């Protein structure tokens, strides 16, 4: 039997050999597994009984040395190994540490395949330790140190704790940026399609002016304020038309601008005979004339004789010309009578009116 001191040295060498040859992970799967439980004073350390002969050198084994061993069975000795899921610490072979198969980023492996996240990290649904931000990270992703990495269209606050929306060029004095390139305007302001900023709003617009405040217009030269809007002025007038610009008179369809540029006159496609064009394509007969009864749809007006022109024709207002063979009955009369044949026994006196006709 070997001295006690020599036997202890052999046991220590055997422990180192077994732990090293087993690559330090789950070495209790040896040829002679006989675990006796975890050593309470050293977490992850288990006891394994192996044949004592396996713990001596080949030379001693060849010489016939047979140590008794300290196991519970003859010819067996107890050695300390790391339990399943544990491995020897790299800098001390007398302690074991838990092993997490997938590692433990941002955390500590506190038991076999059990990660405990470090401060500032929490576990996600997959069991990975991810950074956490105390107030969340809306519109971004929480990164190491509780700093938000913001999505496109957002920027990090100065302290990196939250993401704020970005509106290129700002939203103007009357708005605030509430989303990526999205402005919200306050009362009295509206979003401009051209600038995408909140600008002063004047209900109904300013016409020929500029909105300089909520519902407040400033008129340009040549315009005047009419019912909170700036309308063009035509100092020389614009009868029957519309002033569309400073000193500019515009006519509606069916009207034409006269030579002075200040009056819109009605236009009749066909000329008005004995009548005036009083509206687009509308003729109004002059005094003493009426619409031609033979063609009411025409623009022609004919003379009117209230009492008619018996045996004659009305050629002018209230004026008749007698047909051949007829003469006026009396001066100032529109009645025509048959001319009498001349007889030596009769004396005729021509009426001045008949002479003129």
UniProtKB/TrEMBL annotation:
Keywords: Disulfide bond, EGF-like domain, Repeat, Signal. It holds the Pfam family hEGF. SUPFAM superfamilies: Growth factor receptor domain. SMART domains: EGF. Transmembrane segments: none annotated. Residues 1-22 form the signal peptide. Residues 95-130, 132-164, 166-199, 201-231, 233-265, 267-302, 304-337 form the EGF-like domain. This is EGF-like domain-containing protein. It comes from Zophobas morio.
